[in-house]
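Preliminary data (for renewal application), WQD complex.
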Amino acid sequence: MKTVLVTGGLGFIGSHTAVELLARGYRVVCVDNLANTRADVLDGIAAISGQRPVWANVDLADPVACRSLLAGMPDLAGIIHFAAFKAVGESVQKPLAYYRNNFGSLLNLLEFTAAQPQCRLIFSSSCTVYGQADTLPVREDAPVKPAESPYGNTKQVGEEILRDAARAHGFRAIALRYFNPIGAHPSAKIGELPLGVPQNLVPFITQSAAGLRGPLKVFGNDYPTRDGTCIRDYIHVVDVALAHIYALERLLSGKGSDPVEVFNLGTGTGSTVLEVISAFERSTGKKLQWEFAARRPGDVIAAYANTEQAAAGLGWRAERTLDQCMADAWRWQCTLPGK
Ligand code: WQD
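Predicted structure:
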């Protein structure tokens, strides 16, 4: 039985990936210091999978704690590294905390993989590295634009650190550039748990529909798009989780030659904010209160993925629809206290 370390394993994408790894017979160790999630996510993973992953409550940015955790795992087959601070706006307020945490944890993990090259690493990157791409759908070889936030910079520089380390130390890695992961596991036992006021569109929609927030503010209606609102590539979190299984199996099979391969994780289809609202109302039967507001600084007009490389290299494509995403997100919201 191969052991896989899932850092940020109690987080949104990490928990859904842990479920898929367990379903395929991997032994899973979830590392999570609960900086941005709750311990009871472990119960949700166990309820779906019928088995409980090991949970290590470790701050991976602490080199001593990280080394001691990994010293006990010489036969680790893979590390899937989700653990990072990820709020764009917060990163502008607290850049040093973001650089210390996101780079510190990555560097500590890379010291391990440099010494144990049989351990394959998957790095959680983001479409933010593209900024406003000149051509859409955006391909992996599109130019990386100057980051619009310290968060985006940690992903751009994180990929460069990964590439330099893999080349120097002879290990293999894959960077996955997520577009907009949304939705929840269809069982409604795990899902997105934004702490505080949700910054992202879909959790704000479900909390507003649940009466926990006021009307949704649609940030800008004068963009050069089909209905004036921004376009994004919204992808079901289970599709994102499955892509990690395909990427791990590509690395374990020895396929590919570049030390670090990069793949977009998107559906290839862009949806406007108003189309997301319609999908929510259509799939749940709930009317959403919303109003137009000023543009949000830093938003790009449109971003959606070219999916050819992921299909060819990973043998993976997103399968779930926007309506399924919204129905699953709502079903999860309805399980939360104070819904
Ligand atoms: C989507 C659209 C908003 C909230 C971010 C990160 C990215 C990735 C995904 C981690 C935009 C609009 C939003 C609201 C709105 N995260 N919106 N009202 O900004 O595309 O990407 O999350 O990897 O790195 O940058 O996602 O959900 O915040 O916004 O109108 O209350 O919804 O303007 O057009 P974004 P988002």
